[in-house]
Amino acid sequence: MAQLSRIPVALLLVLVAGEAAATPYARGRDAQLASSYSRVFSFGDSLTDTGNAAILPATAGGPSSHAPYGETYFHHPSGRASDGRLIIDFIVESLGLPEPAPYLAGETADDFRHGANFAVGGATALDPAFLKSRGIATFVPVSLSNETSWFNNVLELLASTAYVPVSLRS
């Protein structure tokens, strides 16, 4: 049991915000399922991080920013701690949705119209301050509480800006 407490908790919390409008990205038998969803919000660590660790100053320039990460599927470093796709990539594909933007790569409501990925490679479930008080040092200063705070920021941003598709803007 003590060994489990040292293993970083890998959270795959995928929240799918459903909307009634159909999405143009749906294909085949997934069209009915995809028509119920328009956004995906993902939380976690390197198992779901699609680029935040490559942007976060504390981890920028790390391994996921260089080859061979991403070479096979994306043909360039993708910010993923993998050479290929992650489970979140398969989830959005099955829903017929485009990939949500890494939170640290977005700035406007338009950047998050398809959701957001808050996962950061090396993130912990517990706050770094709590871990430090127990003598545990972390190299990534991000925890689930940071990710949920970012999620609240995105929700406020989306609520404050009525999203109008680019094709409808004048």
From TrEMBL:
GO terms for molecular function: hydrolase activity, acting on ester bonds. Belongs to the 'GDSL' lipolytic enzyme family. This is GDSL esterase/lipase. The keyword Nucleotide-binding does not apply. Residues 1-22 form the signal peptide. It comes from the Eukaryota. InterPro entries: GDSL (IPR001087), SGNH_hydro_sf (IPR036514). It holds the Pfam family Lipase_GDSL. Gene3D superfamilies: SGNH hydrolase (3.40.50.1110). The keyword Transferase does not apply. It comes from Triticum turgidum subsp. durum. Keywords: Glycoprotein, Signal.
